[in-house]
Design brief:
Elements: H1 17-30, E1 37-38, E2 42-43, E3 48-54, E4 57-63, E5 70-74
Antiparallel strand pairs: 1-3, 2-3, 3-4, 4-5
Length: 76
């Protein structure tokens, strides 16, 4: 897992709940997580936040809505 924003070259603007959920799932999968279950994404002032449960514990995926860059934060 990384604390830095990870570029997601195949994505662009994230404008919907569905796009945020898919982007978060893909980021967690790329980080080596399995058994991923995303919760309902919500948008804060500057990011989408997607809570998730994985085989490695609870995570929040923060997504820059303008670029699609992601940051995974541990919640355990």
């Amino acid at each position: 897992m990384t604390n830095a924003l990870t570029p997601r070259p195949t994505t662009s603007r994230i404008g919907t709940v569905e796009q945020a959920a898919v982007t978060a799932y893909d980021a967690l999968e790329a980080a080596g997580c399995t058994s991923i279950e995303t919760k309902v994404p919500y948008q804060s002032r500057a990011t989408w936040i997607v809570p998730a449960a994985t085989d490695q514990g609870r995570r929040h995926v923060h997504i820059d809505p303008r670029t699609g860059h992601t940051k995974i934060a541990r919640q355990d």
